[in-house]
Amino acid sequence: MATGRCQCGAIRYSIHGEPAYSALCHCEDCRRSAGAPMVGWALFAHDMVEVQGEPVAYQSSENATRHFCGKCGTGLFYTNPAIFPGMIDIQTATLDDQAQFPPAIHVQFAESAPWIEQIHDLPKFARYPAD
Ligand SMILES: [Zn+2]
Ligand SMILES: [Zn+2]
After folding, report:
1. Ligand in closest contact with the CA of 43
2. Distance, CA 12 to ligand 1 centroid (Å)?
3. What spacing in Å lies between the alpha carbon of 69 and ligand 1's midpoint?
4. How far apart are CA 108 and CA 94, in angstroms?
5. Beta bridge pairs of residue 5
6. How many Å apart are CA 116 and CA 67, to the nearest integer?
């Protein structure tokens, strides 16, 4: 079983089973919605996921709804009956165990940030650079 929650804990969820996929999405909608360069998603059948709390639903395009915590703003779920009927996409960064459901692919890479290919070459600091 996997569990996750928003930052403040008002929305919690548990998952029984394995995702159809786990991916990093680089589309502009995800980027703007999350305020982050990319968003990790894992897709599950709706009946595999139990949600506690009431996320706010925002219809972000014709068939897409994004669900987030109205208190702390954490993005949690994405539903789209046109392309994912009966399924729920979960933002993997909200999983309690970040080792679960690691991404296997990048999607919507055509919309990725222009510097994305260079990020593994950047200097890395365990915390902040000391100077
Ligand atoms: Zn919250
Ligand atoms: Zn996306």
Report:
1. 2
2. 9
3. 5
4. 21
5. 12
6. 26
Helix (H) or strand (E) holding 28: helix 28-34
Tell me, yes or no, if the pTM score tops 0.90.
yes
Return the SS3 of 44.
strand
Q: How far is the CA of 121 from the centre of ligand 2 (A)?
A: 24
Give the Cα separation of 47 and 70 in Å (integer): 23
Q: How far is the CA of 78 from the centre of ligand 1 (A)?
A: 16
Separation of 130 CA from ligand 2 center, angstroms?
35
Residue 76: exposure state from Cβ atoms within 10 A (0-12, 13-18, ≥19): buried
Q: pLDDT tens-digit profile of 100-114?
A: 999 999 999 999 999
Taking the domains of the chain in order of start, what are their residue ranges?
2-121
Ligand 1 mean position, distance from CA 6 (Å): 4
Segment 34-50 shows an average pLDDT of 97
The per-residue pLDDT for range 60-97, each reduced to its tens digit, is: 999 999 999 999 999 999 999 999 999 999 999 999 99
CATH architecture assignment, domain 2-121? Alpha-Beta Complex (3.90)
Ligand nearest to the CA of 13: 1
